Structure formats: C-alpha cells, structure tokens
Amino acid sequence: RRERAHTERLLPAVTRDGHAVEVAANIGASAESAEAVELGAEGVGLLRTELVFMDHAQAPDRAVQEAEYRRVLDGLGGRPLVVRTLDVGGDKPLPYWPMPAEENPFLGVRGIRLSLQRPDILETQLRALLASADGRPLRIMFPMVGGVEEWRIARDLTLSLREELPVADLQLGIMVEVPSAALLAPVLAREVDFFSIGTNDLTQYTMAIDRGHPTLSAQADGLHPSVLRLIGMTVEAAHAEGKWVGVCGELASDMLAVPLLVGLGVDELSVSARSIALVKARVRELDFAHSRALAQRALALESAGAVRDLVGETH
Ligand code: PEP
Ligand code: MG
C-alpha cells in the first residue's frame, strides 16, 4: 500500500467521484520546498518562518529574509506558497526580543499580537516576502488572529507595502486557530482570501488543554465534535463567500480524520512532506458524497472516541 502511494505521489488527490483536494506541505526551512515537491506536494500550505528568526543572533534583515523566501519559491517551480508571518511569543521567545514574563504565555502576547507590538519587525518580513514573489503565487497569513481588528491592521499594512512592492498573484488570509475566529468566520470570510485552520492550537484553545500537557494532551483530540463543528462552520462560512479553506494542523495527516475533513469540505490539506503520498492515497479511496454524509454524522456525536469509532468502522 505504501509503495503504491509512493509511486502515485505526483498524481493529484481526487476522490472516486471526482472531487479534488489539494495536498500541500508544511515546512520550516527553505531547503525543504524542493524536497516536498519531489514527495508529491502541490505547494507549501504552511511555511513556519520561526526558524528564519531563531537562526540568528538578531532579527534577520530584509535581504537575509528575502533570500530565504526566494529559495522556498524557487524550489516550488510556480506552485503556491502559503507563508505564515512570525509566530513567536508566549512559550516561544526570541533571545533578541525581550518579552515580559507572563503567567499564561499561551493566553498572552504571541503570534499576531506580538507582531502588532513590533510593527517594524512585521513590516520587514512583509517587505521581504513581497519582494521575493517575482510573479509567483504568494499567500500570506497571520497567526493567532482572534477577530477583525488584528486582521485589518495586518491586511492594511500589507496592502500599503504592496504599493511599493507589487505582487501580481497575492492572497491574504488568517490562521483559524483561536475559537473566536472560527465563531466569527462569517464576518472574517467577507474580508480574507482564505482560511487555514491550525487544529493544534484550535483544539488546545477549544478544549482548554495545553497541547503539550504531560497527562492531558491525549484528551485534546482534534476529532472532538466541538472542534469538528468549528471546522465545519469555518468551511461553510468561507464557501458562502467563495473563499478556500486549508487545514495545516496535525489533524490533516491523521488517516481517520482525512475522510471527515474532506467531507466537511476542506479544500486543502497541508501535512509534513513524508505524509503527502499517504494522504493523497487516502483521498483517492474516498467517495465525496459518502464522506459528506459521514462528516454530518460525526458532527452529531458526543465525544472524540465516538467519532474515532465511527470512522474506524468504515475505514
Ligand atoms: C496549529 O496550531 O495547528 C499550527 C499549524 O500551527 P503551530 O503548530 O505552528 O502552532
Ligand atoms: Mg498554531
């Protein structure tokens, strides 16, 4: 099975009844993009830019970042790149960026909240990204957005920089990983070009369980019906506005979750490069009409265990 998946890794992922799902790669460094394509990626669905910043003794300047982002795009040969702006803060500090100690770093100044406190750093990153595009498809998204205000500030800043650094094929979106953003998806969907659901944080914040908790983290299952409902609402809201939705959290490479995500209408699954062939193979086994019905049944269940039993039976 694995061998067949590998042989077919470069083919698109289309269900038996003809519904296509894009399968892209999550990467953390520029060297990985060409390798991801070789492993079947149809693009990069999440470039985590934290490494670019952690590798240096001070914030990398525009030239250093631009070279890095260019390398990622070069490796993609015209396939789309979804980049997430710097997502540090809270538990992920940067040595050259003093942050006040917080009692609850996961509920503190992290992601877009931190970027908006240091717009100079965000601006440099956005300039580097816009300059690197060179006619290639670039999608920029902001992490940990909880509502319209943060999104609008980040969008307006990007659009103003774009006047000096034009990019023909640019989309702007947000990570949906804070429950308030999922609940407000109908409003946000009018303004964004796309959503990418970060199920790692979305599950953590929905269930109020630290994703790295030594004893509780197993209970923070992305297949909990509460999380599935938020995913379903997000997709419905996006599609009503003609926008697309990806999932870039770990859930996208969970073989039991794939039929449900596809059935909820998720357009793109972004997973680690080594999972791409298997996720594509899983999609090809599915019937979209059946997956849709399965997802509706899952939404009505009472626990993650019940959802896993449901999908496990039909697997
Ligand atoms: C997520 O939260 O699901 C996600 C993809 O981002 P990260 O794991 O980097 O927080
Ligand atoms: Mg996250």
Automatic annotation (TrEMBL):
Q: What domain of life?
A: Bacteria
The cellular location(s) given in this protein's UniProt record come to: Cytoplasm
Q: Where are the transmembrane segments?
A: none
- Family to which the UniProt record says this protein belongs: Belongs to the PEP-utilizing enzyme family.
* Name of the protein: phosphoenolpyruvate--protein phosphotransferase
Q: Which organism is it from?
A: Azotobacter beijerinckii
